Amino acid sequence: MEQQKRICVLGAGIVGMTTAFMLKEKHAEWDVTIIADKFEQDTLSDVAAGIFRPSTSFKGPSPEITKQWLVDAYHHYKKIQNSIKTVEAGVQEVSGYVFSSKFPEVTKNQFLEDLLPVYRPANALELQICPGNWKYGAFFTTLVIESRYHLPWLRKKFEMIGGKIVKRTIPINSFNDVDDYDLVINCTGFGAKKLCLDHDLVPIRGQVFKVKAPWVKMFFYGDYDTYIIPGIDFVTLGGCRQFDSFKEEVDKYDSASIWERCTELLPNLKNAEVTREVAGLRPHRIPVRVEKDIVTTSSGKHLNIVHHYGHGGYGVTTAPGTAKYAVQLAEEVLSGTKSKPLSKL
Ligand SMILES: Cc1cc2nc3c(=O)[nH]c(=O)nc-3n(C[C@H](O)[C@H](O)[C@H](O)COP(=O)(O)OP(=O)(O)OC[C@H]3O[C@@H](n4cnc5c(N)ncnc54)[C@H](O)[C@@H]3O)c2cc1C
Could you say which protein family the record assigns here (predicted)? Predict the structure, then answer.
């Protein structure tokens, strides 16, 4: 009989929760524990609007793998959306427009054009739907995955099949606390910067309003990171993308700019009730890190790690695709495919 494997998934954002659930669902006999210091509404994943819209620059280790991640992620969510669990799981279909007054390229997306059932240029009448001098546009139908529903849904499913959850902080630059596991899957998002001293991981700061505006049924993107994305209970208004900015607090100048840009794009948002404003640091890394490693801890132990972080502004979009890949790497590690120690703490 196969010896029981003990696996620790570090991190309980969309990446960690999805990975842990997929692992436990596929290998019921493995002992899977999630360790994290923040859960659900305290994670970055809760800040996201959750629209399935990868950037054209989203990058994995190769173009083929990147494409496979996106295909796997989309079909994973689409299957949930087609099931009766849609509302509970926070996955719903949404259509809308991307407009630009100057840049035709922002209305194109090679990943989505290949994947979505509807992705087409906006016609002349559609370019007049929103105030503004819109010259270029695209209409498409995609998915919104709302972490506020999806994370508790995943947690419930994970615990129902025997997954364990522990609240704990892992000290900076040290995996010593978890070196008694057969494998650690490191899904710490921006936390990996300190945990692994990863200089390639850079914050891209974002800020959004969450408003009550149930009359908004479609998403709209305008120039300069302006977006309006309806979820189940709230509409997310954004935004900004500030490279290498570590400011976690809401910035009043960004608030003013976001409010002005969004209400210009959709004037009836002026009547919306603001329920909260929040900022977050997108864990940006090129490429996203999903790879095997062996760390020698200070006690001299060789610890197997699968790193799984650095999804930038697209972690909700891509989590199921990268998680499937991370699970494959975990299986390779636990089946005894040997690799040499790479990192030393
Ligand atoms: C304004 C904004 C809007 C966004 N909109 C979208 C969108 O529409 N679509 C999309 O796909 N993406 C979007 N994103 C990006 C998305 O939020 C991230 O890519 C995603 O949340 C990353 O998930 P994660 O699980 O890696 O990280 P997180 O959600 O940050 O989770 C990290 C986990 O690791 C744990 N952790 C970290 N360090 C430690 C430690 N030392 N010890 C213990 N635990 C630790 C944390 O407690 C947490 O549980 C947006 C981001 C922002 C800021």
Answer: Belongs to the DAMOX/DASOX family.
In a domain? residue 184:
yes
Give the CATH number, domain containing residue 136.
3.40.50.720
Q: Mention every residue, 6+ apart, whose C-beta is less than 8 A from residue 248.
A: 279, 280, 281
Measured from CB, residues less than 6 Å from any atom of ligand 1 are 10-16, 36-38, 43-45, 47-51, 169-170, 187-191, 195, 206, 208, 238-239, 280, 282-283, 309, 311-317
Q: How many CB atoms lie within 10 A of CB 172?
A: 11
> Domain range for residue 95?
6-344
Which of 109, 188, 289 to mutate to test ligand 1, by most ligand atoms within 8 A of the CB atom?
Answer: 188
Alpha carbon distance 322, 196 (integer Å): 19
244-292 pLDDT, tens digit per residue, is 999 999 999 999 999 999 999 999 999 999 999 999 999 999 999 999 9
